[in-house]
Amino acid sequence: xxxxxxxxxxxxHDPRDPDKQLTAKSLIESLVDGVLLWQVACEYLSxxxxxxxxxxxxxxxxxxxxxxxxxxxxxxxxxxxxxxxHQLMEEHSLSFWDALILAASQEAGVSRLYSxxxxxxxxxxxxxxxxxxxx
Length: 135
Known about the structure:
The protein is an alpha/beta fold and 135 residues long. The chain starts with a strand and ends in a 5-residue tail after the last strand. The protein has a 5-stranded parallel β-sheet with strand order 3-2-1-4-5, with helices on both faces. The model has no long low-confidence stretch (mean pLDDT 93). The protein has 6 helices and 5 strands; from the N terminus they run βααβααβααββ. The radius of gyration is 14 Å and the shape is globular. The protein has a single domain, classed as 5'-nuclease (Rossmann fold).
C-alpha cells in the first residue's frame, strides 16, 4: 500500500509550481492501492485554505477528500499511533505531525509514503519514504 503526505495533496491543487502540480496529480492518479491517512486528510483541509486566494475553495478541498475516500482506503489512527509517534519524535527529531503520519503509516501497513518533508534516508521497519519531487 502507498500513502501520500499532505504536501503531495496540496501541490496537486497549487498552480504556482506547475512541475510539482503535474507530478503530484500524476502520482495521485496512479496509486491504485492508495491509503488516505486521517491526519493527512485533516491537514490538507486546513492547509488548502492557503489556496483560496488562487480560486480554490474549501468546498473543493472537501470534495477532493471525498473523492480520495471513494478511491482509496481510509485509515483512522488508533491510540497506539500517538504513543508510537512520540517515540519516533524522540528517536528521529521529527515534528509531531510528521511523526504522527509515519506512525499511522506503519500501523496501517503502508509500504511506501510519498513526502517532500520527511527525509527519504530515514530507515523505518517496512516503510520506504520517497520524495516524488526529486529528479
